[in-house]
Design a protein that fits this description.
Rossmann fold; 343 residues; 434 Repressor (Amino-terminal Domain); 3 domains; 4-stranded parallel β-sheet; alpha/beta; disordered N terminus
């Protein structure tokens, strides 16, 4: 309970400290303060320290909008994820791991991360207005679908763009060795004596979905085997439904390569429902090596892709682009097969 005789509570200082007040406190000109706060390197070191000390004493913070007019930089970079918030922050650790990698690099460089999800037409319009309106210095896109026009639109408006999963754009792209990873997985199943190897492919309007299906088909063709294909959308529910379909269509299959760990989790549920033992009756291999793979039942053999490193590499590429350096048009990161009890 407040005391009856308590004096009035004073609010915060009215108005923010100005350049003039910092200049007066430091004993320098307003122009010198402006050069210091805008990061120019032509200021004498003693004067710089005096300005910084005065700014700290007064609690002066440069006005972001005014500073951006001088530097033409916001020191902010956007990461756009073309999914709904529910999908981005679901059980699939792909997006959180990418975000962590991006945030780590941007934080080390003193940049602010602006995260946007564009799972609806309205969200895409908001992201477009924000990015082309000069609120960020560049935009990164992760896990793109073919029909997404935002990257190309932003490039036409002069916004620097770095992508994951859409290499046909004339923008730097960071991805992983899908083909090599899938080939290693299918070759492993063949070496284990599996005869009828099916796949649950990812969305075919995404590079990852198509590339992993291509890798599966190539590996089976090299072994003179027939492809058995069902398609999901990288969710556990779609993996469960696709596995049920495969069991109905090909009841004697003895292995399945699944294009994501989350779909593989759903496939394992469907196999349990059908009374199939894993790996005795059906071997299962996933792709991603998210945390779910280690505590699924049984633990999942999977193709590990360096998800956080994708984010870090995207951020490093964007930072180099913003600094005016040349960057590689395509960077492919390695994958590796991690063998566990499911195969």
């Amino acid at each position: 309970m407040a005391r009856a005789d308590a004096g009035p509570v004073r609010g915060p200082r009215q108005g923010r400290p100005t350049l003039e007040e910092v200049a007066e406190r430091a004993g320098v000109s307003r122009a010198t303060v402006s050069r210091v706060v805008n990061g120019q390197t032509t200021v004498n070191e003693d004067l710089r320290r005096a300005v910084e000390a005065a700014a700290d004493e007064l609690g002066y913070v440069p006005h972001a909008a005014a500073r951006s007019l001088v530097t033409h930089r916001t020191d902010s970079v956007a990461l756009i994820l073309p999914e709904s918030p529910n999908r981005v922050f679901s059980d699939d650790q792909f997006f959180p791991s990418v975000i962590r990698g991006v945030a780590t690099e941007l934080d080390a460089a003193g940049k602010l991360l602006v995260l946007m999800t564009t799972g609806s037409a309205e969200a895409r319009k908001r992201a477009e207005r924000y990015a082309v309106g000069g609120h960020v210095d560049g935009v990164m896109f992760a896990s793109l679908h073919d029909a997404d026009l935002l990257p190309e639109l932003m490039m036409r408006r002069g916004v620097p763009v770095v992508c994951n999963g859409l290499p046909q754009l004339d923008a730097p792209c960071i991805d992983v060795d899908h083909l090599g990873g899938v080939r290693a997985a299918v070759d492993y199943l063949i070496a284990q004596g599996r005869r009828r190897i099916a796949t649950i492919a990812g969305p075919l309007d995404m590079v990852a979905g198509r590339a992993r299906l291509d890798g599966y088909r190539a590996a089976l063709a090299a072994a003179d085997r027939r492809a058995i294909v069902a398609v999901g959308d990288f969710t556990a529910e779609s993996g469960q439904a696709a596995m049920r379909q495969l069991l109905a269509d090909e009841p004697d299959l003895d292995a399945v390569f699944v294009a994501s760990d989350l779909m593989a989790h759903g496939a394992l549920q469907a196999l349990r429902e059908a009374g199939r033992r894993v790996p005795d009756d059906v071997a299962v291999v996933g792709f991603d090596d998210i945390a779910l793979a280690t505590y699924s039942d049984p633990p999942l053999t999977t193709v590990r892709q360096p998800i956080a490193r994708i984010g870090r590499t995207m951020a490093r590429t964007m930072l180099r682009l913003l600094e005016g350096h040349d960057v590689e048009p395509m960077t492919i990161l390695p994958t590796e097969l991690v063998v566990r009890e499911s195969a």
